[in-house]
Amino acid sequence: MSLESIHIAIVEDDNEIRQTLTLIIDGSQGFSCKYAFPDGESAMASIPNLPVDVVLMDIDLPGMSGIEVTKQLKKKCPDLDIIMLTVQSDDDSIFESLCVGASGYLLKDTNPADLLVHIKEVFDGGSPMSSQVARRIINSFRIIDNPLSERETEVLKMLSKGLNYKEVAEEVFLSPHTVKTHIKNIYSKLHVNNRAEAIYKAIKQKLI
What we know:
The protein is built from ten helices and five strands, in the order βαβαβαβαβαααααα. By secondary structure, the chain is an alpha/beta fold. It has two domains: 6-140, Rossmann fold (3-Layer(aba) Sandwich), CATH 3.40.50.2300; 150-204, Winged helix-like DNA-binding domain superfamily/Winged helix DNA-binding domain (Arc Repressor Mutant, subunit A), CATH 1.10.10.10. It is elongated and about 75 Å long. The termini are far apart.
């Protein structure tokens, strides 16, 4: 593989976008873009056998989604860097893409000069993200205010480990009646009706 250029492949179903990206990238010094695919199936069949460093991957493709294509390509080519280049900015698309192995996530309103910088960044080991995407990721790690008291949180943690009311009471040196009162308050604060729902919601919201 040439040391002078970063070799890029594009997977994009919109003909105009695909052709424009190809021309911009291939016409820029230090970059080579000789491979472009209109769908995931053709990309899957070819890219593992091509001298490609970085793939620009759309998500909303006909047939296989870009996320599924990324997952399959990473299995075959673990060292391949894939940047999602998409209009999708929802949490599910972002996190599913990163979970299957995408190295970066950019929105299609990224200007061409910045796109080239980001391709070089991922090639050098970075993980480029559009600012909007990075903010969503940061927000997802913020701890939700816990509506439960310290004692209620303690009781719910014990329930999540399979302890019954009596066992919880013995652990925290309270009467079973008091434990039941705590549990009733937990259900009310979490807007649930039973232990399973309470545990599920508390784990999902990172309360326990």
